[in-house]
Design a protein that fits this description.
- The chain is α+β, with helices and mostly antiparallel strands.
- It is built from 8 helices and 11 strands.
- Among the domains are: 112 residues, Immunoglobulin-like (Sandwich); 107 residues, no CATH class.
- The radius of gyration is 33 Å and the shape is extended.
- The termini are far apart.
Length: 323
């Protein structure tokens, strides 16, 4: 009888001890970043790797990247990691980025924030450490004679009189040709004069219509679609406000747009559209159909709201009907 009781007690103790680690085991997340190099010159690429090890009690949430993720650094490439078993009920995950910057000084890559979901639906946040990068200019590093060569002296050309005479004869002949052609066109009534330049909104709407029916989305060419959509929006803003929208970065264009005292919601629409376009072009981000439709609607909204209302033409005094 004592032997049976002892067996039952030992069996219950074994069951209790087998469940004890699971009951008191807490989710664990370990993160480590590897950044090389940490001292660069302007425009040099920087490899940024975030290695994560986490327990099986949590699941990683897909990383969301925006233009503000790396602060003053621009994202050149991104490779999303895939979870892999790491033993002892743990998994490993590595995100790889390539960034660069065109500012000088000691700059900081902000902490990278990742989220994990627990079994009960709660969100757990984990952050990497801030990384300092020293960025030098080429002139500061190498001096004026580093990669630059002094200007060469004046080169004395020999006098080729016959060559200048030949060029003069060719110039006179070309001038005579265009004069005779112009006279003939005048006799025939000339070519039809070109019409007045089209308003910016007409050019933009025509380009948007061609883009929507280009078949790029049907062929899955989302990157080319966003490149053309960004060009249409930038060209419209350049034509409407006489700013160099095509040559500016998204950040510079947003700053210029805010100074125009336009409705605040338009600035938000422009920022969202430009950020999505940058992610598609540089971070291999693929938006869904609803996000593409929303971005197209934001561009149409910006064009519609910023197009000035046409005032009715004034009727000459002599044509007005007396009241």
């Amino acid at each position: 009888m004592k032997t049976a009781k002892s067996t039952i007690i030992l069996w219950l103790g074994g069951v209790f001890m087998s469940f004890l680690p699971a009951a008191f085991c807490q989710p664990s997340i370990q993160m480590r970043v590897d950044v090389t190099p940490r001292e660069i010159t302007i425009g040099d690429p920087i490899s940024y790797k975030a290695a994560i090890q986490y327990s099986s009690q949590v699941a990683p949430v897909p990383l969301q990247i925006s233009t503000q993720t790396f602060g003053e650094f621009e994202l050149l490439d991104y490779r999303a990691g895939q979870p892999a078993p790491a033993g002892d009920h743990k998994f490993s995950l590595t995100h790889q980025f390539v960034v660069t910057t065109f500012s000088t000084g000691t700059l900081a890559i902000p902490p990278l924030t990742l989220y994990f979901a627990t079994a009960d639906g709660q969100m757990v946040q984990a952050n990497t450490e801030e990384v300092k990068i020293v960025v030098q200019s080429l002139l500061d590093k190498f001096g004026d004679e580093g990669q630059l060569r002094p200007l060469k002296g004046l080169f004395n050309f020999k006098s080729y009189l016959w060559l200048w005479i030949l060029l003069g004869i060719l110039g006179i002949g070309a001038g005579a040709f265009f004069i005779i052609r112009w006279i003939n066109l005048k006799r025939k009534g000339g070519a039809e004069p070109a019409g007045p330049p089209q308003p910016p909104e007409v050019i933009a709407w025509t380009a948007l219509h061609d883009l929507e029916f280009s078949g790029l989305l049907a062929d899955g060419n989302i990157k080319e679609f966003y490149i053309r959509l960004s060009q249409i929006l930038r060209q419209y803003l350049e034509n409407r406000y006489q700013i160099l929208a095509l040559e500016r970065t998204s950040t510079e264009l947003l700053s210029e747009f805010r100074r125009m005292n336009l409705p605040l919601d338009l600035s938000g629409d422009l920022r969202t559209t430009l950020e999505t376009g940058d992610l598609v072009k540089f971070a291999k981000f693929t938006p869904n159909d609803q996000e593409i439709e929303d971005d197209l609607g934001r561009v149409k909204k910006i064009i519609t709201v910023t197009t000035p209302e046409k005032k009715p033409a004034e009727i000459p005094e002599e044509d007005k009907i007396p009241v």
